[in-house]
Amino acid sequence: MNNITGQFRNGVWSNNAVLVQLLGLCPALAVTTNMTNGLGMGMASTFVLLGSNFVVACLRGVIPARVRIPCFIVVIATFVTIVQLTLKAYLPSLHEALGIYIPLIVVNCMILSRAEIFASKNRVFMSIVDAVAVGLGFTFALAALGGVREFLGHGTILQVQVIPGWHSFMLMTFPPGAFLVLGFFLAGIKALEKRRAKRRNESLDVPEEMHCAHCKVCNLSEEK
């Protein structure tokens, strides 16, 4: 039970794909013009992640190591096709809004990384738990981004007018608005981490082995 709880906490918050690892930023910044699109993309990605983790975990002892990445991509592409056809048939408006970013789920590094790092090395049940946790974290991040941008841009939430007479803030409807909102999110998360670390008398300084003094990149021209 502790492993499951820790896995959920890690996927949803502590190691959130968007807000901590900065993975899947292409759809996160492109489709989150409103909360509906964010939820739609998050749930579609979660379905693909769940299906691919399940299949990869089931076949982890069968897939040859040399061709594992192409096999993972084929599995992921299969579930992406299912999602795309389902949305096109039953939710055409959402399918049109998400557009090209639905098939681009195939190359979402978040999904491929979970297949490679977790599902290919763990049993089916824990792979499913991992997929649900990471998918929920991804959906939460996209919904939060979309909700803030939609509210600031149009004064609506889930396309329902919250503040009548709201003057549209058009910046939030364009890509720069997505970068700004994400930047404030990241700054807020970092501030919370520093506050918690201060309460525990811990430090969030850069590890010594990652300090600039140990990096020789800047000295490449001198060595030549």
Number of domains: 1
The major pleated sheet works out as: 2 strands, antiparallel
Order of helices and strands: HHHHHHHEEHH
**How would the global form be characterised?**
globular
Strand content: under 5%
Please summarize what this structure is.
This protein has 224 residues and is an all-alpha fold. Helices cover 63% and strands 2% of the residues.
Can you offer a commentary on this structure?
This protein is an all-alpha fold. It has one domain (2-199). Helix content is 63%, strand content 2%. The chain contains nine helices and two strands; from the N terminus they run αααααααββαα. It has a two-stranded antiparallel ribbon with strand order 1-2. A hairpin with a 2-residue loop joins strand 1 and strand 2 (160-161). The N and C termini lie far apart (56 Å).
Index terms:
globular, disordered C terminus, single chain, 63% helix, 224 residues, two-stranded antiparallel ribbon
What is the topological layout?
Layout: H1 2-14, H2 25-30, H3 35-58, H4 68-90, H5 92-98, H6 109-117, H7 124-154, E1 156-157, E2 160-161, H8 175-199, H9 220-223
Antiparallel strand pairs: 1-2
Helix pairs in contact: 1-7, 3-4, 3-7, 4-5, 4-6
